[in-house]
Amino acid sequence: MNENESPEDRAFRAEVRDWLQANLSGEFAHARGLGGPGREHEAFEERLAWERHMAAAGWTCVGWPVEYGGRGATLEQQVIFHEEYALADGPARVNHIGENLLGPTIIAFGTDEQRARFLPPIVAVEELWCQGYSEPNAGSDLANVQTRAALAGDHWTIDGQKVWTSLALESDWCFVVCRTEPGSSRHKGLSYLLVPMKQDGVDIRPIIQLTGTSEFNEVFFDGARTGAGNIVGAPGEGWKIAMATLGFERGVATLGQQVGFRREFEGVADLARRTGAIADPLLRDRLTRSYMGLEIMRLNAVRTMAGVAAGAPGPESSISKLVWGTWHRELGELAMDVLGAGGLVADGEPSERSSGEAQGSTPRGGYDLNDWQRLFLFSRSDTIYAGSNEIQRNIIAERVLGLPREARG
User: Fold this and answer.
1) What per-residue string of b and e applies to 151-189 under the rule 16 or more CB within 10 Å gives b?
2) CB 3.0–4.6 Å: which of 90, 181, 321, 346 could bond 85 by disulfide?
3) How far apart are the C-alpha atoms of 194 and 78, rounded to whole Å?
4) CATH assignment at residue 177
C-alpha cells in the first residue's frame, strides 16, 4: 500500500482486496495463478467462468466510464485494482484484448452504434477478441500490411494472412488492420475493421511455441466478410487508430503485470539462496541489477501514466515496452543461470502429439517444463511481441527525441 494514498483510494483498495479474498475461494480457489505465460491454455473454461463471475460483480473494465459499463475508476484506482489482482494471484485474464485494447479504442474512436453493439459483450465477457496486426512480411514493419479489404454494398470482403494472432482459436471477433485503398503503401490506405471469426473464409492454424503451447496462431482470410459499419474511424485512418490501440496496450495494466514480475524476481532470488548460487559474486551482482531494474520500471510506468490520463497514450509508451521486455528476458536468463546445468533437463520423454488431441488445448512434446524453464523460454519473445525492441527504439528516437528518421532503402 502507498502511504500517500487518499482515504478514498485506501477504501477502494480494501474493497478490491476483500472481494478477491472472498471470491478466489470455494468454487474458484483452484483458479489462483492459472494460465500464466507459457500456460495460456491452462484451465481456459474455468478462467472464463471466473471472469464472468467478476463481470457479474462489476469488476471488469473498472477504468471505463460508467456510461459504457465500467466503474469510472480513477487512474490511481485502476492501478490499485491491477496491483491487488496480481497480489491475490488471480488467474490470467481471458478478456485482456477486448477489455484493455479494443474497448478503449472503440470508446475513443468508435461510433455510438459501435459502442452500443460491442462494449456490453466485452464488459460481460460474452465475446472475446483477438488482434489482427502482424503478417509474414509485416511484423515489426507493420506499415507493410498487405491483407486487403474491399467494400461491396453492405459489407467488406477481406483476403490475406495474419500471424502471431494471440488467442485466435478462442476469440469471437478480431480487429484487423488491412489495406482498403488499392495501390496505397506504407501508412496510407489502411483501415481498422472489426471481423467475426466464426465464419466461412476464416482459417485458424495454431503455431507451436518453444513452451509447447500455441497461444498464438496464423489466420487466413479468404473472402471473409464483415458489415460495412464495422470500420473504426474513416477509411484510411487505420494507422492512427492501430497506434492508439498499441498505446492502450501499454497502459495502466502494465503496473499489475509488474507485480507479477516482482514475484518472479523474488522467486529467482529465493532459488539462488536455496541452491547457494547467491554466493557467486557475478550472479549476486545480476540479482542486484535486476532488482534495481524492477524499481526503475515501476517509476517509469507511473510517470508515463500521464498519457493514459490524457486519453490515448503517446509514443512515450514505447519506453515502457522497451524497458519491461528487456528486463523480463534478462530475468529468464538469470533464472537459468541460477539453476545451472540442471536447468537444461526437462521432466518426461519427448513424444509426438496424438492425432486425437484437441488443437491448442495442451502443451506438445510430452515433457513438462518447470516454472523457470518456462519463464526462460517464454520471455525470449518479450522483446519481439507487441512491438520489437528495434522498432521501439526507432519510435523513441524519431517521435519522442525528434532525431532524424532512420534511412530506409
Assistant:
1) eeeebbbbbbbbbbbbbbbbbebbbbbbbbeeeeeeeeb
2) 90
3) 27
4) 2.40.110.10
Looking at the DSSP bridge assignments, the partners of residue 286 are none
Q: Which helix (H) or strand (E) holds 231?
A: strand 231-232
Q: Kindly give, in sequence order, each residue whose CB lies less than 8 Å from that of residue 177, ignoring residues fewer than 6 positions away.
A: 132, 133, 142, 145, 147, 190, 191, 192, 238, 239, 242
Strand blocks (E) in 91-180? 129-132, 148-152, 155-166, 173-179
Rounded CA-CA distance 362/212 in Å is 8
The CATH number of the domain holding residue 43 is 1.10.540.10
* CA–CA distances in Å: residue 55 to residues 52, 59, 146, 194, 334: 5, 5, 37, 23, 38
Catalytic residue among 84, 99, 218, 249: 249
Tell how strand 216-227 and strand 155-166 pair up. Answer: antiparallel
DSSP output for 182-227: TT--TTTTEEEEEEESSSTTEEEEE---TTS--SEEEEEEEEEEEE
Average pLDDT, the chain: 86
Predicted local distance difference test score (pLDDT) of residue 13:
96
* Residues in contact with 256: Cβ distance below 8 Å, sequence separation at least 6, in sequence order: 79, 81, 82, 83, 85, 86
Record the cell numbers describing residue 52, joined without a space: 464472468
224 and 257 both lie in a single domain: no
CATH number at 368 reads: 1.20.140.10
Q: Catalytic: 295? A: no
Label residue 289 by pLDDT band (50, 70, 90). Answer: very high
| 261: confidence class by pLDDT, cuts 50, 70, 90 | confident
Q: What is the pLDDT of residues 312-337, one digit of tens each?
A: 556 666 777 888 889 999 999 999 99
Provide the residue type at 78 as one letter: Q
